């Protein structure tokens, strides 16, 4: 089975996000909205669900009216496919390539691929400059922009809100965290500041390690898990710390799939 973590450029109208996410049907695992980032993360299983959500987002949203703290270049900004259970990264690459062809051909949205070829930060830095779209039109869609479509292992999106509202401090902390297992940005989020991270190898560097590394440099107001976490990562952390780290058994990929009667050890499939 493949997980797909669709990042949509809308986080202030909860009703709009819910309308978009509803198109995933029973394959919907999670919806996380953030009004300051003006972004939603919609987690689904299967290629069919990913296409249905993307089509609804392109229809409902207009990038020209979008403002938010998080970098973005499309209304369906990032669409990574992630192998779960018995699926492989090759299965995820196949799904990625099929999705990008569909999005470009059916909705005229240019697509940049990431995964083994290049990272998502590489795409953000070079899109429409030294890097042309891999599939689709050479210029952005007038309302939908472009899309980065990826194939990657499981990662954890994890934000730490600082008690001290010092943006330069957040940026220094983010820089100190960056490495092969962690991507990090210091962001101004409304009146607050945040160290926003992607834990790209969470079994090596998980939420607990990042929380503690930040806490050594500044007081933390709160932690925020964006989306879901693998059960194996949760089990490696002392349960007494789960509330402080914004973790719980109910917010694991496995628990959400089981609650919907979905089998993570099934085929990669193309259905919803």
Structural features, described:
The protein is α+β, with helices and mostly antiparallel strands. It folds into two domains: 2-151, Formiminotransferase, N-terminal subdomain (Formiminotransferase-cyclodeaminase, Chain B, domain 1, 2-Layer Sandwich), CATH 3.30.990.10; 156-258, 2-Layer Sandwich (Alpha-Beta Plaits), CATH 3.30.70.670. The chain is 29% helix and 25% strand. The protein is built from eight helices and ten strands. It has helices at residues 14-21, 47-60, 89-107, 120-126, 167-177, 207-215, 231-235, 253-259, and strands spanning 2-8, 28-34, 39-45, 76-83, 111-114, 147-151, 156-162, 182-189, 192-199, 220-226. The strands form two sheets. Strands 2-3-1-4-6-5 form a six-stranded mixed β-sheet, sandwiched between helices. Helix 1 (14-21) packs antiparallel against helix 2 (47-60) and helix 2 packs parallel to helix 3 (89-107). The protein is globular. Residues 267-272 have low confidence and may be disordered.
Order of helices and strands: EHEEHEHEHEEHEEHEHH
CATH class of the largest domain: Alpha Beta
- Quick one: how many beta strands? 10
Radius of gyration: 18 Å
* CATH architecture verdict of the largest domain: 2-Layer Sandwich
Q: What is the strand content?
A: 25-35%
Number of domains: 2
Q: Sheet with the most strands?
A: 6 strands, mixed
Shape: globular
CATH superfamily of the largest domain: Formiminotransferase, N-terminal subdomain
Distance between the termini: 11 Å
Helix/strand class: alpha+beta
Q: Could you name the ranges where pLDDT drops below 50 across 5 or more consecutive residues?
A: 267-272
